[in-house]
């Protein structure tokens, strides 16, 4: 029997979100109902609200979440009621061409719940990234649940569900940052600062953080950046080259998702260096680069989806590192808020006042 719970719904493009009563069906085969304990407010949720991802309104927002499995459907063996889990949007299928080649971190056919959550009038909801976790409970595919140590704070654990994992993974998994490498990170919001943490964790010798907001640069310094550049007043490409012997950084991570910052990343890397795009562009953006420069500089131009993570491998590992004191995931939590405060959290996010607001239920 379907349960009535509260959920944060984006009814239409750029319309204020609303707290609605939603219906969560009992889990079917391969599905799980999860009682949400905490969910971060991510830029991706704002993109959904603005119509920048799809136009399949109304959306049930929220996806950076942790909670406890309440019930499971037939055939579910990987999680059980009572398990503490982080929700992920890469529930690998095991059968697509990426999985069959041993690259499940690139799975092209990830699982979502087959049933739909709805409003009370029967209107079907589109859950953000197949999760929809600004809600007391949500319905997901069981593969979207990754078990981790229940001793960790849900407000901290949930952030691995998207932004923090995306940034750390962009450095370690996609960028392949190694000991002694030089790294530049352009854009120091939640994802960018997570990339700084990832670069430090990998043993980078020099980490240059670039942003137009001195507050974010101060945070990047506290996260492990060795140098900072305010690109509103200073050419970051020149500074990055100066700090790397005139050559450019081994790995440049672009965490903004704009053509102008991508060009900065391209020209701030060393010959045969790597550019990683982890910032999410909007559909109308285009990029123009001289093809001779692309050819002549060599190296790699990569996009990082979800930090190229494998949740079953990476989430428990990062939770362990946090509990050992080797990384401070709690530093990303600027504030905790209630489920009715998401619209105001979007405003603070847009103003650059927070790394992460986290809804605690």
UniProtKB/TrEMBL annotation:
Gene3D superfamilies per UniProt: Medium-chain alcohol dehydrogenases, catalytic domain, NAD(P)-binding Rossmann-like Domain
Entry cofactors: Zn(2+)
InterPro entries in the cross-refs: ADH-like_C, ADH-like_N, ADH_Zn_CS, ER, GroES-like_sf, MycoS_dep_FDH, NAD(P)-bd_dom_sf
Pfam families listed in its UniProt record: ADH_N (PF08240), ADH_zinc_N (PF00107)
CDD domains: Zn_ADH_class_III (cd08279)
Domain Enoyl reductase (ER): 12-361
Keywords: Metal-binding, Oxidoreductase, Zinc
Family to which this protein belongs: Belongs to the zinc-containing alcohol dehydrogenase family.
Protein name: Oxidoreductase
Annotated source species: Streptomyces albospinus
